[in-house]
Amino acid sequence: MSHHHGSSSDHHHHGHTPKIHHGGSSAPHVAQVPDGLYASSGTSTAGVSIAPQAIYNGGYTNAKDVRLRIANGGAGQSGLIGAWADAFIKYMVKERHVQPFLVAWYLGDTTESLGLLAAGSVDVAVTYNEAAEKQAKDSGAAVSLVYGFRDHFLLVGPSKSNPAKLNEKDDILVMFNKIVSQGNTDIAVPPDPNVRPPTRFLSRYDKSATNIKESQLFITIGQVPWALVYSKWYHQYPRFPLQALEAASLLSEYTLTDRGTWLSSPQSVTSKLKIFKTGTDDANDPLLNPAHVLLGSKANVNDKDIANAFMKWVVSEPGGQYVVSQFKKHEEVLYSKAP
């Protein structure tokens, strides 16, 4: 059993919403949240703390102390962070002769994870936006940054109706253009719901890396659908990746998701959707989703050796990169190793 509580296959149950505590909390391993950071999760009050989504023990049930705290969104929900944690603990115990310890994962999108890192509430953040990561390094919040793995964005939408008439041969920007123009047309002249659903795009609208990427694509074609008066076809749905994909499936909407989320979702969700465009490993592909691992300047002083060892282990071929290459869902490898 890899988990301190529950096995690592139960991420569907524990990965949905951040475990926020208001006011002083005596719950174990809670981390302080910088004021306003989790506002999109409905917590705009001050003095908020967050409990780990999961705590991993590498199979050592006698481990008691959390010595590494990691913030991340999608790869935590898919289970990769847990797989990394378990393998890293085993490595430290067997190869480095460290006493068994625990690794805690805190759920946060890129913006939230970097905020927790800057505050010293976590030691490491695994994030997906190079501009934001550069800011974290330039501001001194992060002391080092390594390439962890490659995820890939997917543009998905209703498989049967495909109301925007996307063609898989289309370039991604052509697809976004079609969604905008058909979305506007369907607002002016609503389609007969018995024939097809209207063209709508579901945005996580939550400052996540996915939201930033989707915004970047709209801006590249000269569109700002979220600006007032916001486009009625642009559905703002601030939730974490698994829930957002489920909503797009139920509502027959297009959305930007990632391969990890797609393969972590049940067939009841994915069967109603079609992948129209998939990111590749080409560094210039706008749908490549590189994940970087950042070490915080305020990482726990007593456990600096553990955090430093993790940063080296995570990029090593027999370490973190091997875990990435073996990490599968439905017999498919979710992520590519770092280049």
Automatic annotation (TrEMBL):
InterPro entries the UniProt entry points to: ABC-Tungstate_binding (IPR052738), PBP_domain (IPR024370)
Composition bias type Basic residues, residue spans: 1-22
Entry-linked Pfam families: PBP_like_2
Region annotation (Disordered) ranges: 1-34
Domain PBP: 68-317
Gene3D superfamilies attached to this UniProt entry: Periplasmic binding protein-like II (3.40.190.10)
Superkingdom of this protein's organism: Eukaryota
Residues spanning the signal sequence: none
SUPFAM superfamilies, per the entry: Periplasmic binding protein-like II
Name of the protein this chain belongs to: PBP domain-containing protein
Species classification: Eukaryota, Fungi, Dikarya, Basidiomycota, Agaricomycotina
